[in-house]
Amino acid sequence: MDILKNVGAAGSSAVITVTAIHPIDVVKTRLQVSGEGGGRNYKALGIGGSVKVIASEEGIASFWKGIGAAWMREASYTSLRLGLYDPIKKAMGVTPESHFVLKFTAGSLAGGLGSVVGNPFDVLKTRMMAAEGKEPPAMGKAASELYAAQGISGFYRGIEANIMRAMVLNGTKMACYDQIKGMITSSGIVPKGLPTQFCAAFSAGFFMATTVAPFDMVRTKLMNQPPDAKVYSGFVDCIVKIVAKGGPGALYAGFIPIWARFAPTTCLQLIIFEQLKPMFGL
Asked: Which CATH architecture has domain 2-276?
């Protein structure tokens, strides 16, 4: 029963958070798929220019393209990767004093499980956010087009990159959050409660962006391939082609939006999660 309560509290916090953070994700995705398929070169415009162009040409509502798929993704993927962390820690016998590696392993396992369930919604969300034009693509239409072209396998594009990304992301996020929160609490420098949670979550967001950015780039590229074609044969092929075309730095395209998304997302998500736990009887 505690597992269901954990998952419920995690899913609720994730859906609330993604609604506020989604515009940053849209800009990040546009920067990562910049110029593909003859589309606009958002990298040349930069973050500010991209925001201005999207707003003027597609309208403010376009910053919430794919929000339906994002809600479904958070309700599945994030609810599991956050909600299963504590139960997995208990099953592994991990305590606050345990080594960082054990906490990272627990977070990675929860992230990997969540990504398998949430991958179809991740694919749809990525494609919908990358679509240019004033009329936001409907999730049902995007799903039917993908299914008609590639069948069920189309919804699992980039699954390898997504699992690896989720394991690195959730392992870093939860382990850093736990570790930093423990250090702050024992130091007594920051008051307990919300201030401690905020400092730990914000710090964890930076480490997440640093470790996850390359995986996020590869995942986005794989998921945004045309429904009727495969530009990349897999994870390794995608990395090789990205580096060959733009150098190692290309793996970090969109890093600032990623960090700008991770920092507030991590803070809001984990703080709301902590506040919702008592309401779910945890």
From this structure: Alpha/alpha barrel (1.50)
Domain boundaries in the chain? 2-276
Residue 261 above 80 pLDDT? no
Sorted by sequence, the CB contacts under 8 Å of residue 178 that are 6+ apart come out as 96, 103
Q: Taking a C-beta distance cutoff of 8 angstroms, is the pair 15, 75 a contact?
A: yes
For residues 150-162, average pLDDT: 82
* Alpha-carbon gap, residue 170 to 176, rounded angstroms: 10
Who contacts 26 (Cβ-Cβ below 8 Å, separation ≥6)? 54, 62, 63, 64, 65, 66, 129
Write phi, then psi, for 281 (nearest 5 degrees).
80, 25
- Mean pLDDT along residues 133-153: 79
Q: What average pLDDT does the segment 228-257 reach?
A: 84
Whether the predicted model's global pTM rises above the 0.70 cut: no
Q: How many CA atoms lie within 13 A of 227 on its CB side?
A: 18
